[in-house]
Amino acid sequence: MSGDAAPKGWSRQQMADRLAAEFGDGWIVNLGVGIPTLCSNADTGDRDVVFHSENGVVGYGPVLPEGQEDLHLVNAGGQNVSLRPGAAIVHHADSFALIRSGRIDATVMGAYEAAANGDFANWKVAANAKGGGIGGAMDLAACARCVFLILEHTTRRGAPRLVRRCALPVTARRVVTLIATNYGLFEPAGEGFRVKELAPGLTLDEARAATGAPLTD
Amino acid sequence: MSGDAAPKGWSRQQMADRLAAEFGDGWIVNLGVGIPTLCSNADTGDRDVVFHSENGVVGYGPVLPEGQEDLHLVNAGGQNVSLRPGAAIVHHADSFALIRSGRIDATVMGAYEAAANGDFANWKVAANAKGGGIGGAMDLAACARCVFLILEHTTRRGAPRLVRRCALPVTARRVVTLIATNYGLFEPAGEGFRVKELAPGLTLDEARAATGAPLTD
Amino acid sequence: MPKSKLVSGFAEAVAGIPDGATIAFGGFAGPGTPFNLIRALLAQGARNLTCVSNTTGGAHQPRMPDIGMLVENGQVRKVVCSFTAATRPTDVLPFARFLEAGQVEAELVPQGTLAERLRAAGSGIPAFYTPTGVGTEVAEGRETRNFDGREHLLERALPVDFAFLRAHQADEVGNLRYRLAQRNFNPVMAMAARTVVAEVEEELLPAGAMDPDSVHTPGILVHRLVRVPPAPEGLWPARRAERAR
Amino acid sequence: MPKSKLVSGFAEAVAGIPDGATIAFGGFAGPGTPFNLIRALLAQGARNLTCVSNTTGGAHQPRMPDIGMLVENGQVRKVVCSFTAATRPTDVLPFARFLEAGQVEAELVPQGTLAERLRAAGSGIPAFYTPTGVGTEVAEGRETRNFDGREHLLERALPVDFAFLRAHQADEVGNLRYRLAQRNFNPVMAMAARTVVAEVEEELLPAGAMDPDSVHTPGILVHRLVRVPPAPEGLWPARRAERAR
Questions:
Q1: Is residue D164, in this structure, part of any structural domain at all?
Q2: Which of D30, D67, D155, D230 has the fewest CB atoms lying closer than 10 Å?
Q3: Mind spelling out the 3-state secondary structure of B146-194?
């Protein structure tokens, strides 16, 4: 969601890898546009994780290198991915049937803001903006068992993205279970966030200074 | 629906053939259990008629002779039928999506009673019976463009099946467009039936005597 | 790596089905009916079941395992079907005397509504409106609403605990393909169920051997697979040419 | 005998689309988008259109024919999409200035709701309930109802006059198969439309040559087929590896 001024802590792939370590064996995981798609490049070891894309691809794998792409096969971010053995294709209504009926164990999404009360915002860049990009985010946020977010800890201007309450129009309310940023792993805890893990080289004070709500251990 | 005491006028296959002559070129026609399934044996000549079965078979043909059946392929009556070139299979929800969305030009059903006001009854053998056999009849009757019935003109005991108003619980109201019986072709006309055609050898007086509502030419 | 969902046999396939469970059974007039799983459930003995299927069983011979047999075996509290009586008045199903005697409850549902209620349950749609059944006994006492000048009935989703399916092909992760009219209710019952058990006619394929574009039911919906042995040990659909004349 | 639905070319495929029509366009991030039909519609010139699609077009290069181009060409009154802005704040779609200027109306719909509204239209379901969007701006002023302790939004079916699809294979009666992620919205748009026009990548098959079990969209829903010539004359999806890093 943000620029390329090298941020502190984890790289985007490290954020994705860290969140991917939370996926349980046998989970169905939906990956959204942006950093989340990097999760399908992660090594999930012995765990059988099935990646689902809102466009009806069930069981995809890493992004393919240039020249090896199949132009008929994209993930939610439009990247040309590979299929894993046992993959299946369904149409859009069936894909969202899987989502709304609670078959998705975790959805991983980007966000502009994540709030301590579990709300998050990722479809409108400003409260008064005309137009927005909802995509499948509202369906996924309302219906997935776990809602994970990956986002840069701050905006390009250094403003916190982890806040007490969202200022932007929300995507869903009280649903976020876990947040990975370049600063570490955080859990919404009502009025603040619980720090589950800090990225190497970062202190709690640094994280507090960059966060718009109280942090607790 | 009735016994085998050779009735007057048309045979069952003749009733089916006569109704099949009403199918327009390009029509999608659903055939119900019983005599209606005989329509898929009819010669539709130059007309392209696609037979649909509620179990999701789109584009079937005649019943296959013993020894040539495919045990995975049945019509609504459980008969082992053949497929025509261009056939497609869909699941039950998609099959009824086709039905409810008005894609079926004509549905042909059996009935216990057909009323002059366009009501008909085909799912319960007595008003106070426990249980019944609705099958796909209510969906088809409510949503097909034309509702055609094929039934014996009278019960085994000689009571009329074409009546002013149904005594049995109805399948749908004011939907029947055309009725074939062994006596001929009839159209509901409000308080009585319009005789569209009489079977060879039958007189209007004979038909009147066997009908529970006025007949007009 | 994905684990194979193949179980050792029919006893394991129906193991742990508790008393009081709601089970959907695929099949329409023979094809797609999980005859072998029904036979195994008769032996397993779970009671107080709610059975969802198109019919309670046909009047045709030879009789195959059907919901009516589970009723006769004292295992069923309620059926949800589009046929609770035969279409020919002259055919009387064995099920009928249990229904007449009040020994089993029956919810009679138009077939398209039954299919759509199952699909809705599998789609996170708690309720929808349909024109089917308006003005009939089925609509009595029910909530209706006018859309675009036409009355519609409010229908609720029909979730089930288990779905018993029959498929033609499967791979080891549970992707299923049905053959011809075998498909019928099976895909929507898989959607509606928390646990899906499928009997499969052909040898299981390894993961990756089934064309992803040709999967009818995605494997993530399927939990247990069991192979149907060839007849006479395994039960197959029988010839059913109806005498319409 | 069934008649072939193949038309002579793209001009005939979009002939007779009237001003004021509602058209659904398949496609998601490239695959399944009827690029050639959109190009033909730009030339055909129908105006005052309502366009239903996942997005108004991406910010990626090379730019392919998209809904945004129809807007820029003055042909569109309204769009119904799940994206009316890019997901990256730094990407500004050409469409945005028309929306800001009030030169086009936009109905922004969550993607799953969009797919389900199309399927409902193609299923005779006038309305259904979904949990998606509850508590958000999308739900403001909307009818809600509690089922099973949870609030749901009432959503209406979204019927369309035409659907423009892209498929991989077709037979001459219009049975369609899509390849991989090309499937996306295409089957439900075919269900929702009164007239379905499909551009097809491979040589048409004769009736009977496609396995009936492997059809994705039954031919009875499809009215006009047109063959996509190989690039550069025919437009194909482009490589779209996103720079996520």
A1: no
A2: D230
A3: EEEEECCCECCCCCECEECCCCCCCCECCCEEEEEECCEEEEECCCCEE
Dihedral class, residue B53 (left if φ above 0, else alpha if ψ from -120 to 50, else beta): beta
Domain containing D149 equals: 111-133+143-158
Q: How far from the centroid of its chain's Cα atoms is residue D126's Cα?
A: 20
Decide: A and B in contact? Rule: 3+ Cβ pairs under 8 Å: no
Cβ contact (<8 Å) for A134 and D110?
yes
Contact B131 C99 (CB under 8 A): yes
* Residues C79, C104 contacting (CB under 8 angstroms): yes
Using alpha carbons, list the distances in angstroms from residue A7 to A21, A151, A158, B96, D8.
22, 12, 10, 55, 57
The pTM for the full model equals 0.97
Rounded distance, CA A112 to CA A119, Å?
A: 11
Pairing label, strands C76-81, C105-108:
parallel
Q: What is the 3-state secondary structure (H, E, C) of C108-177?
A: ECCHHHHHHHHHHHCCCCCEEEECCCCCCHHHCCCCEEEECCEEEEEEECCCEEEEEEEECEEECCCCEE
Q: What span, in angstroms and rounded, lies between the C-alpha atoms of C67 and A156?
A: 64
pLDDT digits (tens, 9 = 90+) for D153-206: 999 999 999 999 999 999 999 999 999 999 999 999 999 999 999 999 999 999
Q: What ipTM was predicted for this assembly?
A: 0.96
- What architecture does CATH give domain B12-159+179-184+195-216? 3-Layer(aba) Sandwich (3.40)
Contact indicator for A60, A83 with CB cutoff of 8 Å: yes
The predicted model gives D108-117 an average pLDDT of 98
A209 close contact with D: CB closer than 8 A = no
Domain boundaries, chain A: 12-159+179-184+195-216
Residues of chain B with pLDDT under 70: 1-7
d(CA D135, CA A148): 19
Residue (of D55, D70, D89, D95) closest to D17 by Cα position? D70
Q: How far is CA B117 from CA B38, B113, B155, B164, B215, in A?
A: 27, 12, 20, 7, 13
> What letter does residue D67 receive in the DSSP assignment?
H
Q: Does C172 touch chain A (CB under 8 A)?
A: yes
Residue D125 falls inside a structural domain: yes
Measured between CA atoms, how close is B103 to chain C, in angstroms?
Answer: 14
Question: For chain C, what's the residue count?
Answer: 245
**8 A C-beta contact, residue C141 and residue C214:** no
| D232 phi and psi angles, rounded to 5 deg | -85, -10
In whole angstroms, how far apart are CA C119 and each of B1, C108, C115?
Answer: 33, 18, 6
Number of domains in chain C: 1
Residue B119: CA count within 13 A, CB half-sphere: 20
Asked if residue B15 lies in contact with residue B34, where contact means CB atoms within 8 angstroms, the answer is no
For the segment A14-48, what is each residue's pLDDT rounded down to a tens digit? Answer: 999 999 999 999 999 999 988 999 998 888 889 99
pLDDT band at D152 (very low <50, low <70, confident <90, very high): very high
Residues of B in contact with C29 (CB under 8 A): 55, 74, 76-78
Q: Give all strands of the β-sheet with A120-121 in edge-to-edge order.
A: A120-121, A113-115, A162-163
